[in-house]
């Protein structure tokens, strides 16, 4: 589930970039993605006879996950307006380390050797894969990217505890409903409604929505099955997938250093799949 989520998240990035060329924009796509998930899961909950109502504390926890989703999207979108995308990506992918440190503190233990090694290799691999440069550092840009990273870590930590009581489907439904509210508010506030101007653009958005919905749902399943730390490490596969899709769809090419980065991410995933002895 974690690998599938990472692959879908990675595929959604370059596909969204193609959709921008046909009249869409980031805020509109973000809002439509969460709208589709809410409608889909709402119909599923109704069809299966699952109660929508939850205890207030669980509803609040789901809302907090949704706020984290908005912080992720808003943080990354704001960050790339101050610093290059590749630098935003590297700062953003500090969230596996954040997740590990917080989980270790909560569980009152030292981070495992394999956990630390896997996360360090993954971050190094991501940096090489996206060809990061630190020549254009900007405090605001780094700050927004860190906000997005905190949002990811927070969503994992809160969701992993909420799912046990509320279930995967209801947690995902209410978290995405809150994210939909935030995304729609931002889209309307900035008058950023932009729909595709061609049938191909509409088809692209439909594919992006389907891929993103799969990514979100499998991510919540994965956090229940393997926990937030291992999930965070596996999701480092996302930028690697985005790079490969860009190579195929946008006619880009990988350099030798990028291949090394891909290899390091692969090694990190192998280490993350092993359990501490």
Report the biggest beta sheet as strand number plus sense, adding barrel if it closes: none
Order of helices and strands: HHHHHHHHHHH
Helix fraction by DSSP (H/I, runs of at least 4): over 70%
* Average pLDDT metric: 87
Report how far apart the termini are.
Answer: 24 Å
Total domains, how many?
Answer: 1
Radius of gyration based on Cα positions: 18 Å
Count the beta strands: 0
Strand content: under 5%
Structural class of the secondary structure composition?
Answer: mainly alpha
Which consecutive residue ranges, at least 5 long each, have pLDDT under 50? none
Indicate the overall shape: globular
Count, helices: 11
How would you explain this protein's 3D organization?
- It is a single chain.
- The chain has one domain.
- Helices cover 79% and strands 0% of the residues.
- The protein is mainly alpha-helical and 277 residues long.
- The radius of gyration is 18 Å and the shape is globular.
- The chain has eleven helices and no strands.
- The model has no long low-confidence stretch (mean pLDDT 87).
- Helix 1 crosses helix 10 (237-249), helix 2 (26-47) packs antiparallel against helix 8 and helix 6 (113-129) packs antiparallel against helix 11 (256-272).
- 48% of the residues are buried.
